[in-house]
User: Fold these one by one.
Assistant:
Number 1:
Amino acid sequence: QVQLVESGGGLVQPGGSLRLSCAASGSIFSINAMGWYRQVPEKQRELVAAISKDGSTNYADSVKGRFTISRDNAKNTVYLQMNSLKPEDTAVYYCNTVLKLGSGWLPVPRDYWGQGTQVTVSS
C-alpha cells in the first residue's frame, strides 16, 4: 500500500524558515526519484524540487537558492528545507514521485496523494 505522509508546515513570517518531511512507503521510495509539489487554490500543482535515488537534485527557478531537498534512504524520508520564505511560497506542499530521464526531470506523480502540509508565509 502506498503511503505518503507530509509534515512540518506552519505559519512563518517572510524571511523565515521551515523544514518539511515526507515519510513514504518503501515500495515507491526505493525505486523512484522523489519530489515536493505545491498547490494553491485554483492553480495546478507544481513541482518545486526533486531528488534522484543517488542524490542529484533539481529546483524550480522560483525556489532555487532558497530551498534544499534531501532524502534519507534508510528512513524512506524526503525533506525540504525552506529558507528566506516569501508570501508567494504559501501553498499546500505534497511529496510524490518524479521521473528522471537523463538530465530531464518530469512531474510524474502516483495517483495517490497524501494529505499535504500547509505552509503560510505572512506577517
Number 2:
Amino acid sequence: VQLVQSGAELRNPGTSVKVSCKASGYTVTNYDIDWVRQGPGQGLEWMGRIDPEDGGTKYAQKFQARVTFTADTSTTTIYLELSRLRSEDTAVYYCARAVVSSSYSTFYDYWGQGIQVTVSS
C-alpha cells in the first residue's frame, strides 16, 4: 500500500491550491481518506474525510467554507483544494488511509509523505 502525494506548493495569499494523493496497492473504494495538516510548531489538525466510493465528504467546520475533497477512482487519486489561502494555512498537508473500528474509532494505517504548502507574498 502506498499513498504518494504531489510536490511542494508556494502560493500568494488569497489564491487557491490543489494537491493530490495517489493511492495504490489496495482497492481505493474500500477505505476513506482523511486529510490532516501540521503547521510550524503545531500539532496535527484534522481537515476532513472523503469516501472515494461515492465521493461523500465530511469537513471540519473550520475549513468547510474553503476546502473541497474529490476522488477520481479511475486514477485512484484523491484531491484537496483549499481556497482563499492565508499565511496561517502554511503547513504540511497529509493524506491518510482511515480505518474505522467496530466501535467507530478511527486510526490511520498508511500515510502519504506530506506536502509542504507555503502561503506568502
Number 3:
Amino acid sequence: QVQLVESGGGLVQPGGSLRLSCAASGFTFERYTMRWYRQPPGKERELVAFITGAGASTNYADSVKGRFTISRDNAKNTVYLQMNSLKPEDTAVYSCNAYAAIFNRQYWGQGTQVTVSS
C-alpha cells in the first residue's frame, strides 16, 4: 500500500522557519522524483520544488528561491522541505508528490497546513 505522510506544518510568525517531512512507503522511493506542491486559500495548487531520485537535481519556484531547500534521504524514504524567512503569502496546504515518468505513476500525500501570521 502506497503512503505519503506529511508532517511538520503549523503556525509560524513571519520571518520564522519550518521543516516539512514526507515519509514514503509502498514503492521504490529512490526511483521517484519527489515534489512539494502548495495550495494557498482560494488559489490553485502550485509546484514549489522538486528533487530527482538520486538527489542530483533540484528546482524551485521563483517565489521561494533562496528561502526554501528541498532534500531527501533515500535510506529513510523521506523528503524534506526546509522553509526559512517565511512570509504570510507562504500560507497554504503543502503536499508532497512522488512521480516516475518511467512507470507513468504518481502518488500524493494528504497535505499539511502551514500558516504564517503574526
Number 4:
Amino acid sequence: QEKLVESGGGLVQPGGSLKLSCVASGFNFDIYAMGWFRRPPGKASELVAAINSNADNSYYTDAVKGRFTITRDNDLNTLYLEMNDLRPEDKAQYYCATGQGTHFSIAPYSYPNWGKGTQVTVTT
C-alpha cells in the first residue's frame, strides 16, 4: 500500500525558512516523479514543484522560483522541499504526491496519490 508521510511544517516569520520532508513507502519510489502541492486557506490546491524520478529535471511555479528547491534521495525514499524567504502568501497545507511515470507533469490530475499534508504558517 502506497504511503506518503510529510513533516517539517511549522510557524515562521516572513523571511524565514523551512525544509519539508516526505517519506514514501509501499512502492518503488525511485521510478516515479514526485510533486509538492499546497492548498492555501479557502483556495484550490496548486502544484508548487515537481521532480523527475532521477532528479535530472524539476519544475517550479512562478511564485516560488528562486526561493524553493525540490530534491529527493532515492536511497532514503524521501522527497524534500526547502523553502527560503517565506512570505505570508506561502501559508498553506503542503502535500507531497506521486506522479504516474518517471517524468513529471504539471497537470494536477497526474498525481493520484497524496499524503495527509503538513501545515506551513508564515506570520509576524
